[in-house]
Amino acid sequence: NQFVKRDLQVMSNLIVNNDLVVDNNQLIKRDLIVSSNLLVNNDLIVDNNQFIKRDLTINSNLFVNNDLVVDNNQLVKRNLTINSNLLVNNDLIVHNNQLVKRDLQVMSNLIVNNDLIVDNNQIIKRDLTVNSNLVVNNDAQIDKNLLVKRDLVVNSNVLVYGYQIIDGELKVKDDTILDK
């Protein structure tokens, strides 16, 4: 185990084969590899790749300027900003805003309690819960159910391959074409 009470600053690679706990800020200029748990109680900034074998818990902000791969759960108490790819093989929970500049891939649940912005592709294998705004500037693929509790606005076409069930009124403001 490695325990740091104040700041941790590494100008090259940091490799930890067990737990890493940092109570203040952590700045890594190159790769961060933790083979067990990573707990940071303040900001974590990684300028290159970050690979976590087990849980990642951040009680403040997480900034990654390249790829972030987490094999187990990831919990971020404040903002999560990824300037490249984000791959989580289990649950991802973010209590504030999440910004991913490239691809977002979560193999289990994704819960965001504020805004979620993805500039490229988004793949969620199980549940997606967003309690505020969801903005996707490219493709979004959802393999299971999608529940929208308020309005759904589509600026282009909607294609439904199965049944479309409407449990209320259907209002059409322009021409309607129904094929047999």
How would you describe what is shown here?
- By secondary structure, the chain is mainly beta.
- 0% of the residues lie in helices and 40% in strands.
- It contains no helices and 24 strands.
- It has strands at residues 2-4, 8-10, 14-16, 20-22, 26-28, 32-34, 38-40, 44-46, 50-52, 56-58, 62-64, 68-70, 74-76, 80-82, 86-88, 92-94, 98-100, 104-106, 110-112, 116-118, 122-124, 128-130, 134-136, 140-142.
- An eight-stranded parallel β-sheet has the order 1-4-7-10-13-16-19-22, with no helix packed on it. An eight-stranded parallel β-sheet has the order 2-5-8-11-14-17-20-23, with no helix packed on it.
- The N and C termini lie far apart (67 Å).
- The mean pLDDT is 74.
State mean pLDDT (0 to 100 scale). 74
Rg, Å, rounded: 20 Å
Query: What is the makeup of the main sheet?
Result: 8 strands, parallel
Strand adjacency order, main sheet? 1-4-7-10-13-16-19-22
Q: How many beta-strand elements? A: 24
Strand content: 35-45%
What letter string, H or E per element, gives the SSE order? Answer: EEEEEEEEEEEEEEEEEEEEEEEE
Distance between the termini: 67 Å
Q: What structural category do the secondary elements indicate?
A: mainly beta
Helix-residue proportion: under 10%
Shape, please? elongated
Low-confidence stretches: none
How many distinct helices?
0
